C-alpha cells in the first residue's frame, strides 16, 4: 500500500480507502462487512470512512465495533454530518446544535473518543458558514475532531470557508470528498485547481462509478441480481449501453497492462496529485483485495492518451 498526505496537512492516508455507504449495516451481510474491513486493514489500508446517515447510524456502529480490534492510532477514521437524522426542524443541516449533537452521537456509535476527520456532508445555505466553522473549531479544540473536511462543496464555497477561518483564526478545511470517476469529471475544472492552491486534498467517492467500471455489466438488459444497480433505480439509470461499450474498450487497455478494468480506473484517478485517496466500497473481502492492487500503479502518457480517446 502507498500513502499520501491529506491536503496540506501532515496526515498520511492510504491511496485506497474503505467506505461504508449503502453497504455496512445495510444489504451487505455482517460477516462479509467485517471480513472486508479486516482484510483492508491487513492490506495496509489505514483510512476508513462512514457517516451518521448511513443506515441511520448502523454503519458507524458496525465499523466502530470492527475497528476496535486494532490500535486506535493505527488507522484514520472519518464520519460526517448534514443529512436528516430525525423529523425535527433541527435534526439536519450544519447549525451549531446539529453539528455538536451529531458529533457526540457518532462518537458514541463508533465507540471512540475522537474522529480523525469530520466532514460537512454537504453545504448548508440555511446556516451562516461562520457558525458552522466555529462549531467545528470548538470540536477540534476539545480533541473530538482532529481535521475538518467537506463533501461536494464548490471551489467558491471552500474559498469562502478558508477566508472566514483565516479571518477569525479558526481551523481550516483540509479535505473535500467529491464524486470523481471516468464518467464524472466535474472536479477537474475548478475543485482540483482550488484544492491545489488552498491545500485541500480530494478523497473521491464512487471511483468505480458504483460498479460500472468493474466490467460487471455486459448489457443494460443483463444487470446482475447482486449488483447495486439491480437494487437502486438511480444507479440503474446510470448504466447505459454507451458506457458499457467504453468500459469494454477500457478493459482491453487494462488487460495489456495486466490489470483489471477496475484497477485501471483507480490508477487513472490516482494520477491526480491532488487526490489523496480513492474511496471504495466492498461487499466481499475479494473486492478490497483487488482494488488495493491499484495503489502505486503508474500509467504512462501513452496509456492516458488512449484512455482519453475512449472516454471522449
Please provide the ordered H/E string of secondary-structure elements.
EEEHHEHEHEHEHEHEHHHHEHH
Strand arrangement across the biggest beta sheet: 3-10-9-8-7-6-5-4
In CATH terms, what is the architecture?
A: Alpha-Beta Barrel
C-alpha geometry: globular
Strand content: 5-15%
Number of domains: 1
User: How many β-strands, per DSSP?
Assistant: 10
User: CA-to-CA gap between the ends?
Assistant: 31 Å
- CATH C-level label: Alpha Beta
**Fraction in helix:** 40-55%
Provide structural commentary.
It comes from Paenibacillus soyae. This is Aldo/keto reductase family protein. One of its GO terms (cellular component) is cytosol. 42% of the residues lie in helices and 14% in strands. With 312 residues, it is an alpha/beta fold. The chain has one domain (3-210, 271-288): TIM Barrel. The strands form two sheets. The chain has an eight-stranded parallel sheet with strand order 3-10-9-8-7-6-5-4, with helices on one face. Strand 7 (145-150), helix 6 (155-168) and strand 8 (173-176) form a beta-alpha-beta unit. It is globular, with a radius of gyration of 19 Å. The mean pLDDT is 91.
Short description:
With 312 residues, the chain is of the alpha/beta class.
Please write out the topology.
Blueprint: E1 3-5, E2 12-14, E3 16-18, H1 23-27, H2 30-42, E4 47-49, H3 58-67, E5 76-81, H4 96-110, E6 115-120, H5 129-141, E7 145-150, H6 155-168, E8 173-176, H7 191-198, E9 201-205, H8 228-231, H9 233-237, H10 241-256, H11 261-269, E10 275-280, H12 285-292, H13 301-311
Parallel strand pairs: 3-10, 4-5, 5-6, 6-7, 7-8, 8-9, 9-10
Antiparallel strand pairs: 1-2
Helix pairs in contact: 2-3, 2-12, 3-4, 4-5, 6-7, 10-13
